Amino acid sequence: MTRAEWKKAFVVEKILDGHMTNPEGAAVLGLSVRQVIRLKKKYVAEGGAQALAHRNRGKKPSHALSEEVKQQVVTLYNTKYYGSNNCHFAELLEEHESLKLSHSSVRRILLSKGIKQARQRRRSKAHPPRQRKPQAGMLWQIDATPYAWLEDRAPSFTLHAAIDDATGTVVGAVFRPTECREGYSLVMQQGIREYGIPLGLYSDRHTIFRSPNEKLTLEQELAGETKPLSHFGKAIAELQIEHIKAITPQAKGRVERLWATLQDRLVIELRRLGVTTIEEANAALPKLLKKHNRRFAVAPKEAESAYVPLDPSINLSHVFTIREYRKMGSGNTIPYNGTVYTLAKPVPFRFDSRMTVEVRQTLDGEVFLWHQGQALPLRATEKPERKAATTKKASFAQPRKPAANHPWRNPWSQNRIKSSTKSTTIQVT
User: Fold this and answer.
1) What does the DSSP 8-state code read for residue 296?
2) pLDDT of residue 429
3) In Å, how far from its chain's centre is CA 235?
4) Which of 25, 75, 190, 193 has the largest count of CB atoms under 10 Å?
5) Residue bearing the bigger pLDDT, 44 or 134
6) In terms of domains, do 189 and 244 share one?
7) Residue 248 is part of a domain; what is its CATH number?
8) What pLDDT is attached to residue 214?
9) Cα–Cα nearest to 258, from 230, 287, 295, 207
10) Partners of 243 in beta bridges
């Protein structure tokens, strides 16, 4: 019997002996008078304090899990789903194994077998959380993280992703070998095509987002730019998105917290699908992101969306590009990356020689001239093939050997030189 049950038996005995009344016993036990009377009848009818003990003590509950189910859960965790947390493991069991268990039941089963969570509990937050934006599309947070997403099946690569601050929806994501401008550009294109243009973008201070040049070049000044921007920054400015650059990671905590969730769950999902390459991971990523958004996305405070619809006339492939300035040469030629380009089609306007023009290169490698909001296609000029001049090699005369009595064949000596010198002197005299 427990301590509480012994207390009930002691009070009931006092009441039966006449030392306490029913209301006094009810006050001591914290029960109603009716419940005290019920305990008295039970004590008298069944003979003693043992009648007040709980009837199910020592019995196995009817809804308890069988040992076969427990062993199945442990086996699945050790083989197929190892490394997953309790909540994710319970979801995977229900989704793929038809075992509906609560995460607390899963935790108890694993702890009974000596299996503890590999991931430690989070430390207390040093920075207070910032309130979410009230409307979807008011702010996106964008970042990238390298990780062993395929464990030992492939080298580590980098996941680029953007998350909506108001809803926690992952609007776009892509795997790339390293953190790069192309990855961020693909993420932005995915999100804009699916949801629309956001009002703001929160990023870190990587040189992909921030130009390392503090001064404008002469070409940038002639083009009318007011501050130096990176290629990615120019694309964001063209779409009229306010770009905010965070100084600390805690400032964009929404996307930083996303990495902990994806590193915990996405690795298990990719392993379950048998993904072994970065190409296969990118192919499986959209479906996994939809599953993540259904699980973790929340409703915004205000139902009205802040997204700006994408103008059908805007080609995002022409926006997220490399942008450089060149001088127009004679004959409408433009040198770019070691190749001389010219206009692929005639245009209704005229370019002056030495005029500064903007050349853009897309993610697919397409090079075109951007002029007055239009993309003018370019083609590489063909250099004429010049045949190398054939030069005749000079013929050398056959080597001649001196005769046997030639002076060069005579042995050399000092006496010979002196005699030849004397004879010469006598002749001169």
Assistant:
1) H
2) 42
3) 20
4) 25
5) 134
6) yes
7) 3.30.420.10
8) 58
9) 295
10) 201
Is there a single domain that holds both residue 191 and residue 88?
A: no
Domains: count for the chain: 4
For residues 250 and 349, membership in a common domain is answered with: no
Give CA angle at 132 (130, 137), nearest 5°.
Answer: 135
- Region of poorest pLDDT, from 57-66, 185-194, 357-366, 414-423: 414-423
Domain assignment present for 389: no
- Give dist(CA 341, CA 175) in Å, integer: 33
Contact 318, 234 (CB under 8 A): no
- The amino acid present at 404, given as its one-letter code, is A
SS3 state of residue 379: strand
pTM score, whole prediction? 0.70
Query: Residue length, the chain?
Result: 429
Supply the mean pLDDT for the chain. Answer: 85
Secondary structure letter of residue 70 according to DSSP:
H
Determine the structural domain holding residue 98 and report its residue range: 67-112
Mean of pLDDT values over 419-424? 50
For 161-175, write each residue's pLDDT tens digit: 999 999 999 999 999
360 touches 370 (CB < 8 A): yes
Beta-carbon contacts of residue 391 (< 8 Å; ≥ 6 apart):
none
